[in-house]
Please model this.
Amino acid sequence: MTAATFHIRTHGCQMNVHDSERLAGVLEEAGYEHTDDADGADLVVFNTCAVRENADNKLYGQLGNLAPEKAQRPGMQIAVGGCLAQKDRDAVVRKAPWVDVVFGTHNTGSLPALLERARHNGEAQVEILEALETFPSHLPARRDSAYAGWVSISVGCNNTCTFCIVPSLRGKEVDRRPGEILAEVEALVAEGVLEVTLLGQNVNAYGVSFDDRASGRTAFADLLRSCGRVEGLERVRFTSPHPRDFTSDVITAMAETPNVCPQLHMPLQSGSDRVLKAMRRSYRAKRYLDIVDDVRAAMPDAALTTDIIVGFPGETEEDFAGTLRVVEASRFSQAFTFQYSPRPGTPAASLPDQVPKAVVQERYDRLVALQEEISLELNREQVGRELELIVSTGEGRKDTATRRMSGRARDGRLVHFTPTGTTEEIRPGDVVTVRATYGAPHHVVADGDVLTHRRTRAGDAHAAGQRPTTPRTTGLGLPTLGPPAAAPAVSAPGCSADGSSSAALRLPAPLTEV
Model:
């Protein structure tokens, strides 16, 4: 009897991507086998996002596309989890009655039990917990990458931004103890991982329950320094900090810890003090720019990226001009730009003076044009420089046609390079040094020979098809349930739904709320 297969479709931020690794670990522990091919999978799991306006349409469109297959294969199961499931709850099953399981952001570990219950009872199971019972990092994980790993340091958020639905879906901030975090980092490095990204909805608020701010030190800065002492860990990144909680000791720790990358993603959202106040963002434009100046003074070559919302209710042309001024002054290497859309359940959704769509689009286009001009200038400044890259996979859509490979520089820039000038095969996970020859708005090209090439354990693991695995670190009190054997297909009529959707984004969604 062959094991049932599962496929996970992930929408949204880095937190969701890491949650999907935990979902995969839980399912493999229960006896399922992962497949990259959604067609024919015995279980399809949707890990959803509720941030953007088209999130609902995207999910229900994809669910509709699966309905005919589900009708032909009664043994197939469909599960919906994540933020949209937490928000919509029973509405998911009302809109898509062929869904078997709906689970929330706080009960990832219960998915195998819910699937078994749905099979046994012959009806959909909906379980939405209101609070976190076990930190997700205690669950097993099937890691996506041999060379880079996500490490959650906190979940939830204590902020009350008027446009954001995340706190109501993820709950209040809960922090992990530093020893647990470092143990996970060390375990990943022991399996060959070269780079970790510390994750939190408000990552630099980490430790508010146990650090001593009166001493001038913060738990997050101490955590960065501790990561710097992990032997074999070559790069440390983090996302996303809140300007309100950004302290000088974090900047110092970044500058003084060699493996902490010279990269900072810090959401701006707006450059207008009036709009920031309406958003309940507890900083103003000057405070933001002061942080930018301090970061650049400590790390002149640091790359800064940000999130910006255009068209927040009541935004005037003068307000928008303030955003353009901050963008010009900050010189971001990239910006994740979003057109405001009201999200039900948020205070901003009922604010007066909603900005007309045409006005929002025109401002958005101007912002994107300005940012692309700045990004192009900064990437052209890289030409002639030597860049150290961890070779990646799946980042260059044209790599096959151009015979290039791709990698990320220490400051996070995407670099496409020609894998020539070395006698050994270059694999994802290996480390190379190249010289930049061309700059474009969203990437850098290095078309000369590779200057240096270092084969790594991560490269060995990738070539062998191996990925780091994280075992369960504490029991959840749930039974370990195995999946059923795949059921034969039968002929039955199906239904379809319009799954079309569009996103006006040029980059993947960041972790922060929009």
Observations:
- The first helix runs from residue 14 to 29.
- The first strand starts at residue 5 and ends at 10.
- Residues 474-514 have pLDDT under 50 and may be disordered.
- The domain at 5-127 is CATH 3.40.50.12160 (Rossmann fold).
